[in-house]
Amino acid sequence: MAGESRAAMIEAASTLFRRQGYEATSWREITRTSGAPAGSIGFLFPDGKEQLAAEAVAQVGEAPRDLAASLLSGADDPVEAGRRWILASADVLERSGYTDACPVATVALELSHRSDRVQVEVVRAYDSWREVIVDRFAGRYGPETSRTIAEIFLAAFEGALLLSRAERSTRPLITLAGNLDRLVAALADVP
Fold first, then answer.
1. Can you tell me the distance from the alpha carbon of 168 to that of 93, in angstroms, rounded to the nearest whole number?
2. C-beta separation of 85 from 67 below 8 A
3. Residue 43's closest CA among 2, 1, 14?
4. Of 25, 78, 130, 151, which residue is the least packed, with the fewest Cβ within 10 Å?
5. pLDDT averaged per 10 residues in sequence order, the chain, 191 residues
């Protein structure tokens, strides 16, 4: 029972943090959304909401990594694979009414500068996504260039997600997808 309540609270917190942010999400809302007993909060998360946020980031960081790995392995051309990831993310964002963007970014923006515990999990999540990109591009561009591609790809992708959410339009993501080949080509030519 405690394991189920804990998992339900992490899942509820992940969704709520992604959609409305850490500060705007109350314990009461997390317990109501999760169906967990309100009295279990202190037992399940003795270090409080920050502990819950760190655990939520650790868990939700896996889903985009797994999605990216699946989409990036699904095409012979790594650029086309990257384009698929971007377009799939645009579709998810649009279908959610622009509420479901990056599951890590909202918490990262609010807590990374003031919580070492959360910052560690945010870095782990982003590092794991970068490694998926590096692995996919390394066969064509080599490991060093692939690391540069991964860093800039992820920065552009996160920025496009943010802009798309702010504008309530997939245009920034579509623009990135449509220009990914030129971006990668330019990065591959950098000494």
1. 9
2. yes
3. 2
4. 151
5. 79 91 91 87 87 90 70 78 91 94 87 92 92 89 94 96 96 98 89 54
